[in-house]
């Protein structure tokens, strides 16, 4: 039987039958999707484009994808955002909104600092600022995901997921597409030409506007009776704070030990495969550049394998209450562990194919930045939006399980398009020339040729990706309990980001080792385990389709 806190939260969304309230909620969800996608693009594809155009090598760009680490570990501080509200803001703004406003203002400040930094001259500082921006973006996502799940009744979650993807992709259209046209070298020196610092200054201004809307326009969430969640609230509060500090210290120790011993241990493990002498395996300077990259990647994986169990042990020892109770509540449902495996695997093929897509198109295929901006970003992202809306509509007829299976199969097959593009090269299909235009917000200063093969691949990839994302977001929302929305959704979305974050370093090394055609075939094969697991999970997913709320443990 559903718990009282779930019923109260759901009732707040369904007790008002007026249609305008539903439109208001869905409109807000769309806006929040936009504010979520904007910094993700600026710490992902836009950042890769800036680094590529600034002359940074491919492997370094691949390793800098690790600035997305906070998206994987955000479940560690999400319990604090579930448990506490910023001092003085809860009464003024209500639940969730205080954290949202603070994270958006902090993002604006970080973007301004990035705008003052040159990647090629200050790569370490640039990386640290990008890491800070990703941490703040991940924190904003914790609140947005929890707020969206709390504010939408169950019947609106499929459409809400599609509209959230719509807003998210519109932001990516701006931060990952239009900015490439603005920064195209052919536009330099004209009134349409932008520099990357100017782009990040504009994005900082947009985040300030988002903070204002979050403070003034979002519907207020009903308060939860937090005393029901813990028998001894004061003691639990102390455990939460101490637990977070313990986890942070454990993670810092893991990072320090990895930095101190990881490379040496990785060289010891890999040296038998390279037939190097004892002297060579202990002297980094004698390794080839490609071998050095494999050593760095192996050291990274060893560090993860050591740090994560250490942090989990620390959380248990000091009784990180909100984290432990949120996890216990999630794992109480049937198939919980298999669901986590599916979440990691479902987007893995997409993550492989897209990890270094921008450098592949710009540096390997030698497409012009404006051509990539128009096709991969502008046209492609509109197709993704269309795919998300189409996916949301089809889900109403197909149901969750069949939608996940069909859209996952289409995602897998779309990766073969990039294999074909890498094999055939440019000019395999007839293209056309987009004439110069000036729409105010975006302009092409000269006629831009569009490769037909690139366009065909992007059409298939973005339509299928949009449909898959809509079904996937609805699936994640169906797994959470209202009491621990931030904690559980952060955990689930952190697992979902494993592919996007961790595949980056491996992708750069693999692409250089086996070549791009074999790499894209590997990305296609990486999607098969998720589809097999989904077939096995059919009864459990079918159960979620008819489930409205889950009891609190």
Word description of this protein:
There is one protein chain. The protein has 553 residues and is mainly alpha-helical. It is built from 25 helices and 4 strands. A two-stranded antiparallel sheet has the order 1-4. Strands 2-3 form a two-stranded antiparallel ribbon. Mean pLDDT is 77; it is low at 1-17, 227-235, 276-285 and 548-553.
SSE topology sketch:
Layout: H1 4-14, H2 19-42, H3 45-53, H4 58-64, H5 69-73, H6 78-83, H7 90-93, H8 97-115, H9 123-151, H10 157-182, H11 196-216, H12 233-274, H13 278-281, H14 289-317, H15 321-331, H16 336-346, H17 348-354, H18 357-364, H19 369-398, H20 400-424, E1 432-434, E2 437-438, E3 443-444, E4 448-450, H21 452-478, H22 485-514, H23 516-525, H24 528-536, H25 538-545
Antiparallel strand pairs: 1-4, 2-3
Helix pairs in contact: 2-9, 2-10, 2-11, 3-18, 4-22, 8-9, 8-11, 9-22, 10-19, 10-21, 12-14, 14-22, 16-22, 16-24, 17-22, 17-23, 19-20, 19-21, 20-21, 20-23, 20-24, 22-23
Main sheet properties? 2 strands, antiparallel
The main sheet orders its strands as 1-4
Number of strands: 4
SSE order: HHHHHHHHHHHHHHHHHHHHEEEEHHHHH
Shape summary: globular
Which structural class should the secondary elements be placed in? Answer: mainly alpha
Write a brief structural summary.
By secondary structure, the protein is mainly alpha-helical.
Which key features would you list for this structure?
553 residues, mainly alpha, disordered C terminus, globular, two-stranded antiparallel sheet, 25 helices
């Amino acid at each position: 039987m559903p718990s009282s806190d779930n019923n109260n939260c759901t009732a707040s969304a369904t007790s008002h039958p007026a249609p305008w309230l539903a439109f208001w909620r869905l409109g807000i969800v769309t806006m929040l999707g936009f504010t979520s996608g904007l910094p993700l693009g600026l710490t992902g594809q836009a950042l890769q484009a800036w680094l590529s155009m600034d002359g940074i090598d491919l492997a370094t760009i691949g390793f800098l994808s690790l600035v997305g680490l906070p998206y994987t570990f955000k479940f560690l501080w999400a319990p604090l955002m579930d448990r506490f509200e910023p001092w003085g803001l809860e009464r003024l703004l209500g639940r969730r909104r205080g954290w949202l406003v603070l994270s958006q203002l902090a993002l604006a400040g970080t973007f301004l600092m990035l705008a003052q930094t040159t990647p090629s001259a200050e790569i370490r500082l640039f990386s640290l600022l990008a890491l800070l921006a990703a941490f703040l973006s991940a924190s904003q996502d914790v609140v947005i995901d929890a707020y969206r799940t709390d504010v939408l009744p169950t019947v609106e979650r499929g459409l809400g997921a599609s509209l959230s993807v719509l807003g998210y992709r519109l932001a990516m259209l701006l931060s990952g597409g239009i900015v490439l046209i603005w920064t195209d070298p052919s536009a330099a020196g004209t009134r349409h030409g932008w520099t990357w610092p100017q782009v990040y200054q504009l994005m900082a201004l947009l985040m300030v506007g988002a903070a204002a809307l979050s403070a003034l326009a979002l519907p207020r969430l009903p308060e939860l009776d937090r005393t029901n969640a813990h028998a001894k609230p004061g003691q639990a509060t102390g455990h939460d704070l101490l637990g977070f500090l313990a986890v942070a210290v454990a993670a810092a120790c893991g990072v320090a030990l990895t930095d101190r011993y990881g490379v040496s241990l990785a060289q010891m493990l890999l040296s038998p495969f390279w037939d190097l002498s004892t002297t060579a395996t202990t002297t980094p300077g004698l390794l080839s550049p490609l071998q050095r990259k494999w050593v760095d990647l192996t050291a990274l994986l060893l560090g993860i394998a050591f740090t994560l169990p250490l942090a989990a042990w620390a959380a248990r020892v000091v009784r990180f209450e909100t984290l432990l109770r949120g996890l216990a509540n999630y794992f109480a449902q049937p198939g919980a562990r298999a669901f986590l495996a599916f979440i990691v695997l479902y987007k893995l093929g997409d993550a492989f194919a897209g990890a270094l897509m921008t450098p592949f198109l710009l540096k390997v295929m030698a497409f012009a930045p404006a051509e990539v901006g128009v096709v991969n970003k502008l046209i492609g992202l509109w197709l993704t939006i269309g795919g998300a809306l189409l996916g949301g509509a089809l889900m109403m007829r197909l149901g969750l399980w069949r939608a996940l299976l069909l859209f996952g199969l289409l995602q897998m097959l779309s990766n073969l398009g990039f294999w074909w593009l890498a094999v055939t090269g440019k000019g395999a299909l007839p293209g056309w020339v987009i004439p110069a235009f000036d729409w105010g917000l975006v302009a092409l200063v000269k006629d831009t040729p569009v490769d037909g093969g690139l366009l065909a691949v992007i059409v298939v990839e973005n339509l299928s990706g949009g449909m898959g994302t809509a079904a996937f977001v609805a699936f994640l929302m169906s797994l959470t309990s209202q009491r621990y929305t931030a904690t559980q959704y952060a955990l689930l979305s952190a697992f979902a980001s494993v592919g996007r974050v961790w595949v980056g370093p491996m992708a750069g090394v693999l692409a250089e080792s086996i070549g791009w055609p074999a790499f894209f075939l590997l990305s296609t094969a990486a999607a098969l385990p998720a589809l097999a697991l989904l077939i096995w999970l059919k009864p459990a997913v079918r159960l979620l389709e008819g489930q409205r709320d889950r009891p609190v443990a």
